[in-house]
Amino acid sequence: MNETIRLLNGHRSIRQFTKEPIAEHELEAIITAAQTASTSSGVQAYSVIAVTDPKLQKELSVLCGNQAYVEECPVFLVWCADLQRLKTAVQISKGDEVEIASTTENFLIATIDTTLAAQNAAIAAESLGYGIVYIGGIRNQIAEVTKLLGLPELVYPVFGMCVGKPDQAPHIRPRLPQKAVLHRNRYDASIQENLINEYDEIYKAYISSRSNGAACSGWSDAMGDKMPIPTRIHMKEYLRQQGFYLE
Ligand SMILES: Cc1cc2nc3c(=O)[nH]c(=O)nc-3n(C[C@H](O)[C@H](O)[C@H](O)COP(=O)(O)O)c2cc1C
């Protein structure tokens, strides 16, 4: 083990923050770390909006499903997939009449680039003693968020991220047994059921200790409740309207 792996293995989402602001030079260091993430062919197809305006944070917290920590954290980062800047680059190079290809592949590239940059930022923030939580709730009312933040065509918010000094010390959430996710040479589906059963017991103990015995459902129950229900079905039409035609 080394310091970096210890830091990664110590991750847990933080949902209560102190009022301590983030120094500008630390925010800049976090974003520099984000920018060093690998990026598909160097396209750097993302932008991040650092929201610190309390009124805006309040509005976003409501739009994210009344998640109070969006308002309470000192900085709320909105990570956006961004093909708009690339459109400008193409126009500079080729002239106004040439468009970037609006393919599913380019949508994926932008979304992947955004995610890699954000996760680098998360690790950098944690290394500086901050805590983070990703906020997928930003897609609950994504059209309203898009308007509020003035996002142009070819830009969409993939997720938000609360950043701040932790004011809580939650348990680390246990992950699946490594054998369930690490396959050797070929994919092996046959072992999954046993490993899920194994994980269910670990997960039940975690949920029980987290809730002081009030709940003790397994991971398969949690996924069974969640995964059959379609969520955010507005995303397809929203992405089309933002210029991600997904051809
Ligand atoms: C893309 C993404 C979106 C998420 N959205 C939310 C969210 O809206 N609200 C929230 O409280 N946690 C959110 N989370 C945090 C997850 O619930 C959390 O990472 C997961 O339960 C594992 O727990 P841990 O981060 O403490 O290890 C999100 C995580 C990811 C990766």
In the CATH hierarchy, the third-tier topology of the largest domain is known as NADH Oxidase
What is the share of helical residues? Answer: 40-55%
Total number of distinct structural domains = 2
Q: Give the termini separation.
A: 45 Å
Mean pLDDT: 97
Largest sheet: 4 strands, antiparallel
Strand order of the largest sheet: 1-2-4-3
Strand content: 5-15%
What would the principal axes of the Cα set say about the shape?
Answer: globular
Instruction: Give every kind of bound small molecule, once each.
Output: flavin mononucleotide
- SSE-based structural type: alpha+beta
How many individual helices?
Answer: 11
List the defining traits of the structure above.
247 residues; binds flavin mononucleotide; alpha+beta; single chain; 2 domains; globular; four-stranded antiparallel beta sheet; NADH Oxidase
Q: What does the secondary structure layout of this molecule look like, with pairings?
A:
Blueprint: H1 3-9, H2 24-35, E1 46-51, H3 54-63, H4 68-72, E2 75-82, H5 84-94, H6 104-127, E3 131-135, H7 142-148, E4 155-164, H8 178-181, H9 192-210, H10 219-226, H11 235-241
Antiparallel strand pairs: 1-2, 2-4, 3-4
Helix pairs in contact: 2-6
Flavin mononucleotide binds at residues 11-13, 15, 67, 133-137, 159, 173.
How would you characterize the overall build of this protein?
This protein is an alpha+beta fold. It folds into two domains: 180 residues, NADH Oxidase, CATH 3.40.109; 39 residues, no CATH class. It is 46% helix and 12% strand. The protein has a four-stranded antiparallel β-sheet with strand order 1-2-4-3, with helices on both faces. α2 crosses α6. It starts with a helix and ends in a 6-residue tail after the last helix. The model has no long low-confidence stretch (mean pLDDT 97). The site of flavin mononucleotide (FMN) has 12 residues, from β3.
